[in-house]
What does this fold into?
Amino acid sequence: MTGAGYGLLAVLLLASAALFLWNRWRMRRLLRRLDRMLDEAIRGDFREEAFDETLLSAVETKLAHYLGASAVSAVHLREERDKIKSLIADISHQTKTPIANVLLYTQLLEEQAPEDCRACTAALGEQARKLQSLIEALVKTSRLETGVLVLHPRPGPLGPMLEAAAGQLVPRAAEKGLELVLEPTAVEAVFDPKWTAEAVCNLIDNAVKYTPAGRVTVSARAYELFARVDVEDTGPGIPEEELAKLFQRFYRGGAASGAEGVGVGLYLVRQIAQGQGGYVKAFSQPGKGAKFSLFLPRN
It folds into this structure.
């Protein structure tokens, strides 16, 4: 090859290298711009810029339009959530006083009404208390679902929380002649004490409500990743086809038709469990009682 040929080859090689480096620089610049756009979208302060008419720029423009629409949707979502928060607060505030007054006047009627009217006033009071429980449960679940109430899990022993929760249901169990047993435990987990106690109370209340005789046992076990709180009863049990539906809002099984309740308690338990990285399961065989297990993370 002549000297001119070597020179031409060198020029071609340099041109190829320059073209390769230029294309790589363009690609890196594009990726940096896309990365910046995504960071801005995540922060919520994305703004569309002016782009040229190249194919790569067209991709940027489409992404810009998509992110712009997403930002608008996020704003609308926040606005709707704020409206729901205000609505929940209004419902909670506006219903407390009327229901309290109904319960007060019902109590006065029960004390002063003739003997033949007391059954009616007692029924009125019972329905008012049921309405109060329903509204309180719906407000709690709505606050959890919309983020008005945020769970604050922290490491700690389960024993004191379980003792406090079971203590609230001891009188009710005694009224039915049931034995409520809390097994001692040193298990620790990561949980929100207030809301986890609410979930455990709902599970124990459910067990007491549907157990005609025998005992209700509360215990805790530790595993590698989760701690498990069990509430087990000696009631009639739950049909297998109903187990998957128990934690749906307002669901009530066939055995619950004659018992008090509105079908929100177990749904609230599931929301509380999921809100702190846990879950809840039910195990049962007809005629052999039921066991509800609340799983809580240990780390």
Q: What stands out?
A: The two ends are 72 Å apart (CA to CA).
